[in-house]
Structure formats: C-alpha cells, structure tokens
Amino acid sequence: MKSDPNVSLVYSTDSGRIAPEKQTQTAPEGDGIVRIHKDSKGRKGKGVSVIKGLGLQEKELKALAQKLKKQCGCGGTVKEFNIEVQTDNREQLKTLLEKLNYTVKLAGG
C-alpha cells in the first residue's frame, strides 16, 4: 500500500484521536553578519527595529530579546527567528550587540 503525503490519519478505533506530530523548526543559517532594519509597515506609523541573521535557536533568541528590551527600556517580540524591538534607536542596539561579540550592520533607511 502506497502512502500519500497529503493524507493524514485523523481517528483510529484503537486509540482515539491521533495528534499530529510537531515539526521543529531550525534556525536559518546566515552569513555571520547581524543586520538591524527599521520597519513601520502595518504598525500605523510606529517604528520598530528588526534584528535579523542571529542564527540562534528559539530559547536563545527569547533570552537575547529579553536582555535587549531591558537595556533599551521598551517592548518587543520574537517572530520567525527575528527579534523586533519597539525602538527607533538602532545605534544603541548596535552597541549592545557588538558588546556581545556580534558583527553588526545597520541595514535599510
């Protein structure tokens, strides 16, 4: 019997509902340079700084984001292996990341 990748088992009389397997995402590999972008699309004109290219796993990214948010005194989040910090002060983020031995570039406007 051939198995079709588009078909998944939903219910079995042996064990009841079948939970789908969780897929773990891996961090995208970058070129070793961390880039800080300024972004305001979809945020009603409010600017955020998006930090890309860190190459860290989910837990490490959340810890780093927490540290950056405390140092800047603002909010933020981790989305799709990027850190979004609610500040326009990219220079401060650059100095903080350089102290943590990252190679940092300011990208975009």
Share of helical residues: 10-25%
The largest sheet, given as strand count, sense and whether it forms a barrel, is: 5 strands, mixed
**Silhouette:** elongated
Give Rg in angstroms. Answer: 19 Å
**Structural class estimated from helices and strands:** alpha+beta
Got a strand count? 7
| DSSP summary: helix tally | 2
Quickly list its features.
109 residues; alpha+beta; 5-stranded mixed β-sheet; two-stranded antiparallel ribbon; 2 helices; 7 strands; 23% helix; elongated
SSE topology:
Elements (H helix, E strand, L loop, with lengths): L10 E2 L3 E2 L15 E7 L8 E5 L5 H15 L3 E4 L2 E4 L4 H10 L3 E4 L3
Parallel strand pairs: 3-7
Antiparallel strand pairs: 1-2, 3-4, 4-6, 5-6
Plain-language structure description:
- The chain is an alpha+beta fold.
- 23% of the residues lie in helices and 26% in strands.
- The strands form two sheets. The chain has a five-stranded mixed sheet, covered by helices on one side. Strands 1-2 form a two-stranded antiparallel ribbon.
- A hairpin with a 3-residue loop joins β1 and β2.
- The chain is elongated.
Quick synopsis:
The chain has 109 residues and is α+β, with helices and mostly antiparallel strands. The chain is built from two helices and seven strands; from the N terminus they run E-E-E-E-H-E-E-H-E.
